[in-house]
């Protein structure tokens, strides 16, 4: 049960910080060597915490309409699956499945599937 809680904690904190547009609190949950993928592409879209910070400062947290709604969360070991509805990226909400791998209390890898 402890690993289950350890896996959820950084994912929940980054989710809350995302909705508050709090970049320092958001970044505190990611490893320095974080890698992000937008599926189905096998190539990373972001590599490193600095790239994550730059992207969210310029393309997410500068948008006052941005917010996410958690539809469901599933945890399998150190992997957290968040089914989300994201508002503010376009005229209509976007459905997303975000998959986070957690190691040592930090998110190391994320995969995003958008519908």
CATH architecture: Roll
Helix content: 25-40%
Give the strand line-up of the largest sheet.
2-1-6-5-4-3
Distance between termini?
Answer: 32 Å
User: Over the alpha carbons, how many angstroms does the gyration radius reach?
Assistant: 13 Å
Largest beta-sheet characterization: 6 strands, mixed
Domain SnoaL-like: 11-108
Keywords: Isomerase
GO molecular function: isomerase activity
Pfam family, one: SnoaL_2
Plain-language structure description:
A 6-stranded mixed β-sheet has the order 2-1-6-5-4-3. It starts with a helix and ends with a strand. It contains 3 helices and 6 strands. The protein has one domain: Nuclear Transport Factor 2, Chain: A (Roll). β4 and β5 form a beta hairpin. The model has no long low-confidence stretch (mean pLDDT 95). By secondary structure, the chain is of the alpha+beta class. The chain is globular.
């Amino acid at each position: 049960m402890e690993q289950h809680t350890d896996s959820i904690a950084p994912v929940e904190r980054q989710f809350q910080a995302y909705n508050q547009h709090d970049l320092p609190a958001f970044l505190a949950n990611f490893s320095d060597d974080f890698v992000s993928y937008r599926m189905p592409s096998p190539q990373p879209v972001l590599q490193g915490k600095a790239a994550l910070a730059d992207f969210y400062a310029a393309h997410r947290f500068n948008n006052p309409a941005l917010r996410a709604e958690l539809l469901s969360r599933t945890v399998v070991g150190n992997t957290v699956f968040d089914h989300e509805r994201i508002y503010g990226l376009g005229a209509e909400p976007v459905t997303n499945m975000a998959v986070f791998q957690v190691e040592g209390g930090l998110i190391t890898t994320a995969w995003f599937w958008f519908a």
